[in-house]
């Protein structure tokens, strides 16, 4: 593997891990459903993997758009000599923009998905940081395995897009395959790991706090990767 591919792979793994581990919505519903519905460990892991793959699928679909755009950029003849620096700058600038968005998210009151446990059931609703998460039942949606799958499919990880755009600009199929593979494996393993930790009563991360910073963390990682390629020869 080249230094560039190592940098891209590590970036994808880092973003995937923090995106997954910092969001209770990636594992809390499975933990509660497993306990309340008395699922076997095998069934719990199966639904976690299925929903994880659905989450990855929607992320990859957006990422393929990035590959296509990068591929088209590669065909522009007068950009042939500068496309390497151009794609690195694009990655760096996107990272800075995403970091700015993440900082805005930290201080904004924009709502996000929140899961509540009521009796033996799990409900999902919109919730803003700093506000009570308790709402009336008619504002909540009861979570079933299929509802959960739909939620994951409709919630892609946007930072994968610039990484695949970069690989598309270099027409590098190995890079595209590697990025999709490590992103998929890291996401699914992290989800399953967090679910198993929760089932057996362990909570290693203060996910409620980390969740607020996940976009800023992703933006920082993308910026570092882009800067390394631009200024350090990664």
Automatic annotation (TrEMBL):
Superkingdom of source: Bacteria
Species for this entry: Sphingobacterium ginsenosidimutans
Residues that span the membrane, as ranges: 45-71, 86-104, 146-165, 177-201, 213-232
UniProt protein name: Urease accessory protein UreH-like transmembrane domain-containing protein
Alphabetical keyword list: Membrane, Transmembrane, Transmembrane helix
